[in-house]
UniProtKB/TrEMBL annotation:
Domain GIY-YIG per the UniProt entry, residue ranges: 2-79
UniProt xrefs under InterPro entries: GIY-YIG_endonuc, GIY-YIG_endonuc_sf, UPF0213_domain
Similarity comment: Belongs to the UPF0213 family.
Protein name: GIY-YIG domain-containing protein
SUPFAM superfamilies in the record: GIY-YIG endonuclease
SMART domains in UniProt: GIYc (SM00465)
Native species: Flavobacterium subsaxonicum WB 4.1-42 = DSM 21790
Source superkingdom: Bacteria
Length: 99
């Protein structure tokens, strides 16, 4: 059983959001921060601030949740972020405190 995570990253001014799914949250956010994939949407728009995430016991559940969030409006994504992170802080350095 492979665990999974959904996450939302934002740019510095919080004007652009990206929703993703991964089995390794630390590694994936590090890739965003280092722009490991320079032609990707998140790299082009400098989205490297982790503002929201959820963990799942199975990656399939994370994929289902990712699709649900991606299908929602920007307002719903903002509401979701602000339930756990009203200041829009970068949660990358605090991931272990939440897991």
């Amino acid at each position: 059983m492979k665990p999974g995570f959904i996450y939302i990253v934002a740019n510095y001014t919080n004007t652009t959001l990206y929703v993703g799914v991964t089995s390794d949250l630390h590694l994936r956010i590090k890739q965003h921060k280092n722009k490991q994939h320079p032609d990707s949407f998140s790299a082009r728009y400098n989205m490297n601030k982790l503002v929201y995430f959820e963990s799942f016991q199975m990656i399939e559940d994370a994929i289902t949740r990712e699709k649900q969030i991606k299908g929602g409006s920007r307002a719903k994504k903002i509401q979701l972020i602000e339930t756990i992170n009203p200041e829009w802080n970068d949660l990358y350095y605090e991931i272990d405190n939440y897991l």
